[in-house]
Amino acid sequence: MLGFLDSLGPAAFIGFILLQAAQVVAAPIPGEVTGLLGGFLYGPFLGVILSTTGLTIGSYIAFALARTFGRPFVDRFVDKAIMNRFDYLLHHKGAFLVFLLFLIPGFPKDYLCYILGLGHLSTMEFLVIGGSGRLLGTILLTLGGDYIRRHQYGRFSILVGIALVVVFIAMAYRDKLERLFRMWHIMDYKRKKVKRSDKKIS
Fold first, then answer.
1. CB-based contact 100:123 (threshold 8 Å)
2. pLDDT, tens digit, for every residue of 162-180?
3. What is the pLDDT of residues 181-197, one digit of tens each?
């Protein structure tokens, strides 16, 4: 990837943005790799900006494709088991819940972009929630890449250690979190439905 970006010369930053976008939509490149690469090449500040731009573009493309072509198209990209896990997101809004799904490590964020395209979130709501939810992970990865570039391996090791602990906890309680989120989502939907009914009666 470094060789590819170097070959682009002054347009390398555009290539990096497109690379980040592509890894969300389809490319078999782990997002952790491109996130570290952003910090390694561009430092903590510009790296976060470029990574966030690319991730937002890629997320929007996946969301828009799902919204345009519907469930048959999404089924080609998203595993059936993942669709079943998050099918409740298709039926009603849950903006804060979606934010938590993007924020917590271990959840398939790229697949969520396709799934949410079939739901009730508006494009603007999706971009704001997805962008802010991914931000913490983007910052951590970018910092990691910057530490590698500066040969600050002690700080990098500490960062990796913290990240692994958080990921381990999230994965250990993933099933419980998903059940909690599903129940929370349904209860919120019922509460809003009751409010709408009360307004119609009044």
1. no
2. 887 877 777 777 677 667 7
3. 677 666 766 776 666 66
CA distance linking residue 91 with residue 188, whole number of Å: 12
Amino acid in the structure at residue 54: G
Helices vs. strands in the chain: H and E counts, helices first: 9, 0
Tell me the DSSP string of 127-183: HHHHHHHHHHHHHHHHHHHHHHHTT-HHHHHHHHHHHHHHHHHHHHTHHHHHHHHHH
Q: Is 122 exposed, middle or buried (0-12, 13-18, 19+ CB in 10 A)?
A: exposed
Residue whose pair of structure tokens reads 């997002």 in the numeric block: 31
The answer to whether 101 and 112 are in contact (CB under 8 A) is yes
User: Do 139 and 147 form a contact (C-beta atoms < 8 A)?
Assistant: no
Residues lower than pLDDT 70 in the chain: 27-28, 92-93, 106, 174, 177-178, 181, 184-186, 188-189, 192-202
Question: What is the model's pTM?
Answer: 0.81
Tell me which residue has tokens 């952003």: 38
